[in-house]
Amino acid sequence: MSTSRTRLAASTAAALAAALVLSSCGGSKSDDGSAAAADSCVDTSGDTIKLGFLNSTSGAMAISEQTVRDSLLLAAKEINADGGILGKQIEPVEEDGASDPAVFAEKIGKLLTSDCVAAVFGGWTSASRKAMLPVVEGSNGLLFYPVQYEGLEASENIYYTGATTNQQIIPAMDFLASKGVKTLFLAGSDYVFPRTANKIIKQYAAELGIEIVGEEYVPLDSDDWSTQVAKIVKAKPDFVFNTINGSSNVGFIKAYYEQGLGPDTSPIISVSIAEEEAPAMGKDVTGQFAAWNYFQSVETPANEAFIEAFQAEYGADRPTSDPMEAAYTSLYLYKNIVEKAESFDVDDVNAASDGVSFDAPEGTVTIDGENHHIAKTGLIGRINAENQFDVVWSSEGPIEPDPFLEGYDWWDPSAE
Amino acid sequence: MESFTTPLLTGTSTGAILLIAALGLALTFGQMGVINMAHGEFLMAGAYTTYLTQQVVSSADVSVLLAIPVAFLVAGLLGLALEAGIIRWMYHRPLDTLLVTVGVGMVLQQLAKDLFGAQGDPVREPGWLQGNLTVLGYHWPYTRMFTIVLAVVALGGLAALLKRTRFGRQIRATVQNRDLAETMGISTRRVDRITFFVGSGLAGVGGVAVALASGTNPTLGTSYIIPAFLVVVAGGLGQLRGTVLAAWLVGVVTAFLTDWFSGSTAQVITFALVVVFLQVRPQGLFTVRTRGLA
């Protein structure tokens, strides 16, 4: 009895799967006769062009990703007021990734194959990007991803407008070396970004003659850092390199100050605390450092215009941050590539992208056509009493992106 | 010496927060047998109450003390609503209770995200808790000592309630033999309701301690609920001393393992140790003899 029931269930599942495959094949065929599924269904005949904005507007990541959505909508509004892309007005198609990688994968499929958008802008966590990657490659679409990440990736169908490791982690280490730092303590959340970042930091530190005096991880949702901070007190490092993500930072910063540490003893350099997070720590973090490629305090004419337009649209109390700027920049970069290619076709866009640049709020950025990342300037900011960052160090001009660190001979990806 | 005192003291403070979270469960789960997975969210509600109190009474010196009774009340009332609205209909269906309260927990988390945002809000500690005391090389923050004081007070209050008051006797009578208690004129409905109120309220007090240690965020309850259940089960149901000992042991053992290995490894090993312990001694550290049928 039970075997036949299992068999029935299995055959039903197989039938359902077959039906799904058939219907999806049928769907792609019905678009334009016998064309392959990879062929685009983007409609470029009208005077508008559809672009997909895919960010989480619900769930745990909503607080961060909503700010990216706001910047994208602002850029679209500005470009439309200025005549659009190739004379076509942008028609945003907005979707909610719901802080769930599976939803991101599903929605980007919908945007590319049923809404037929020319390109998608969004994603935040590496998990969401990894989930979208096979979909966007499978349908030969385009994704612009605006957040700094752990590198070691370069898809033909993704443009990475946030920093890769050689534009954020390595400049931070150069800064520490320039300060004469001799001992460093690594504190991070236990997932892919901190683990990868610390692997790079440890190998570069050996090259720079900086001694790693401790390396501690806590689970991503854990708030209890007291035991680990006691180790920092004991190790007395010149600096603490902080790759903790999200709300775990609050527990860490509290324990750090409560056990008597501070910027005078063992200052912290962070890669995930920005203008939005600094006031939420529950402690005065004045004097601590952060490594990014954009701060609200950056003095460029483009940044002045960006902040003014953003605050006019969303309120004078809204800060601007690195991923917001990278998202804003990504839409302008897309416009510049398309206008160079004189086409919205993905292959034409990829053929034209190399060397396309934009005077972004962070400074001039240029696309590398080979790995689809952009050259960016590395900045170190110091938190002031207004929870803004004073730029105290910057790299000598924009750094060429090198997601696989091929240009660094000390890097050995197979080493522990 | 330092490598011994540091984990011992940090572990004792962590164990104290765990104890306050577990004391409430020792009542609702240990005494009443209700598996309430939303208990962690009551902790979260207590943390947000601390934050809100600080918005109303801006002096942190006063607001944190004020937050303790308010958090007890807020979390207690949430518990009362849960008991009256849902749990009372499923006292003999523990699996259904488990699933439904997981759902309630999710609803409360999303509610907190909508009301306060997913980012989390900072809670300032009062002036009289700033600074630390150096004990054999470990700078022991006053805020973490305060969690121990809070745990001792909560424990003392609960023990006094159960042992010394008329209502405490009614709770114990109901747990030991519900039918007999009813024949003696005790309204077991009323006892259930108030027990649930007190147990949930204690989670709110735990929330004050958590808020002081790491601020607020909508998902903070999830990292305490499983350890709290483990503590209650490992301590043995139906009495408090086992819960106290188990909370302290879990806190201190985790701290030592964190010191030797890493945070993630320590959690895994601690949980594995509890599982092995329960294989050997399923009834927990201590047991009560009861003639209860439930």
TrEMBL record, chain A:
Keyword vocabulary terms for this entry: Signal
Coiled coil regions in record: none
Signal peptide stretch: 1-30
Taxonomic placement: Bacteria, Bacillati, Actinomycetota, Actinomycetes, Propionibacteriales
SUPFAM superfamilies referenced in this protein's UniProt entry, alphabetically: Periplasmic binding protein-like I
Species name: Nocardioides oceani
Xref: Gene3D superfamilies: 3.40.50.2300
InterPro entries on file: ABC_urea-bd_UrtA (IPR017777), Leu_Ile_Val-bd (IPR000709), Peripla_BP_I (IPR028082)
Pfam families linked to this entry: Peripla_BP_5
Name by which UniProt lists this protein: Urea ABC transporter substrate-binding protein
PANTHER family, A to Z: ALIPHATIC AMIDASE EXPRESSION-REGULATING PROTEIN, PTHR47628
Keyword check for Signal: yes
NCBIfam families (alphabetical): urea_ABC_UrtA
UniProtKB/TrEMBL annotation, chain B:
Membrane spanning residue stretches: 64-82, 94-112, 142-162, 194-213, 219-237, 244-262, 268-288
InterPro entries in UniProt: ABC_transp_permease (IPR001851), ABC_UrtB_bac (IPR017779), BCAA_transport_permease (IPR052157)
Keywords attached to this entry: Amino-acid transport, Cell membrane, Membrane, Transmembrane, Transmembrane helix, Transport
Membrane topology annotation: Multi-pass membrane protein
The UniProt record lists the keyword Cell membrane: yes
Location within or outside the cell: Cell membrane
NCBIfam families listed in its UniProt record: urea_trans_UrtB
Family assignment from sequence similarity: Belongs to the binding-protein-dependent transport system permease family. LivHM subfamily.
Name of this chain's protein: Urea ABC transporter permease subunit UrtB
Organism: Nocardioides oceani
